[in-house]
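Request:
You are asked to prepare a plain-text protein record giving the amino acid sequence and the backbone structure tokens, at your earliest convenience.
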Amino acid sequence: MADTVTQLQDQINNLCQLLCNYAGTLQRDALPAAVSANGELSDELAPNGVTRETIGEMAASIAETQRVITELARALPKIETDEKAARKRIADLHAEHDKVSKELEQVTTEAKLELEKINAAFKVASAAVLLDQ
């Protein structure tokens, strides 16, 4: 899940970057608004500015990024929004944590005892080698 969340964050950052860059490009290349006699706005583009094709590409990249964000969001696990269910899940996680902690403590204790045995055997072996010399 962490990888999915990271990908989601990256895609949201990408979308923000696209929106800011495209808004800046459109503002830079925009002509002053022209209103006709009947009140309609002109959609003419500046001669050396952004083209309709470029605007289409901008829209397509925004739509694709939004599609990826939606897919990533759908891939996240469902969560309970009910408070009682959330509290039960938290209690279950605490119980699981306690169980795993006890198991880890037991394994750690066994490993320490095993290490003490190995160190004792090493001392005996090294003493025997030193006495033989």
Observations:
- The chain has a mean pLDDT of 89.
- The longest helix spans residues 83-132.
